[in-house]
TrEMBL record:
One of its GO terms (molecular function) is DNA-binding transcription factor activity. Residues 86-249 form the Transcriptional regulator LacI/GalR-like sensor domain. Pfam families: Peripla_BP_3. This is LacI family transcriptional regulator. It comes from Jejuia pallidilutea. Keywords: DNA-binding, Transcription, Transcription regulation. It comes from the Bacteria.
């Protein structure tokens, strides 16, 4: 973007809808040329994003976006991500798998939950309401939910978490309670954050290809700027997910282990 003469303003909502709304107002007041955004976990109403569209400012969504906005979107196949994770955990011998997801009102988390349920059915594994949780996926959320899971009379032997920060919190709790990972409970996170590779044990995680997503989003913005008369419709660019396998889920010797 800098090479094309654009300065980049970076803002974070910290998953707060109110902060997201204030940020959008500030960016509109600043008269930015375009907005590339990933929705906050709390966001349900789309009025502030429609405000961006009403002003004719290019809006490109990545990771978390809603089809109803009918704009450009870049992300991964969230439904397939869950199938890949469950397939791996089944291969490692897991028979009772819990899922800690984001809020299902957000499309990507709804698709991951749907993929998780369908993958369980595919492998003839039980689906129980007590094994699925929704939260903000922060580290402390992972800690609190993992405590609830460990209090279950029939604990799962695998946990799939839709965010690495929550997975790190869950891992901390399991270590504090002397749960052997992955022998007692195998763990898989999501987003392949840098710390996932250096945690002990290393956290298996779904790679979202963030750099490629950023590149596609930036190029889409530049194309919209260069072609202002082009009609804006729902345009989804979907990348294939990849599971990076590390020690937190590798129970069997066969398979590829990424340190």
């Amino acid at each position: 973007m800098n090479a094309k003469g654009y300065n980049v303003i970076i803002a974070q909502s910290n998953e707060s809808y109110k902060k997201e709304c204030r940020t959008i107002d500030a960016l509109l007041f600043t008269q930015v040329d375009g907005i590339i955004a990933s929705m906050a976990n709390e966001t349900v109403k789309l009025d502030y994003y429609n405000k961006i569209k009403a002003k004719g400012i290019p809006l490109i969504l990545f990771d978390r976006g809603e089809n109803d906005l009918n704009v450009d979107y870049v992300g991964i196949d969230d439904y397939m991500s869950s199938h890949i994770v469950i397939e791996h955990l089944v291969e490692q011998g897991c028979k009772r798998i819990a899922h800690i997801g984001g809020f299902s009102h957000t499309r990507i988390y709804k698709n991951r939950i749907r993929g998780y349920i369908d993958a369980l059915k595919k492998h003839n594994l039980p689906f129980e309401d007590s094994l699925i949780y929704e939260c903000n996926l922060r580290k402390n959320d992972g800690r609190e939910v993992m405590k609830k899971i460990l209090d279950l009379p029939n604990r799962p032997d695998g946990v799939y978490i839709s965010g690495d920060y929550a997975a790190l919190g869950a891992l901390e709790v399991m270590k504090e309670q002397n749960i052997k990972v992955p022998k007692d409970i195998a763990l898989v996170g999501f987003s392949n954050e840098p710390f996932s590779a250096i945690a002990t044990p290393g956290i298996s995680s779904v790679e979202q290809h963030s750099e490629k997503i950023g590149e596609l989003a930036a190029n889409t913005f530049l194309r919209r700027i260069a072609n202002p008369e082009e009609e804006v419709t729902l345009n989804k660019m979907i990348l294939n997910p990849e599971l990076i396998v590390r020690a937190s889920s590798l129970r069997k010797s066969k398979g590829h282990l990424t340190k």
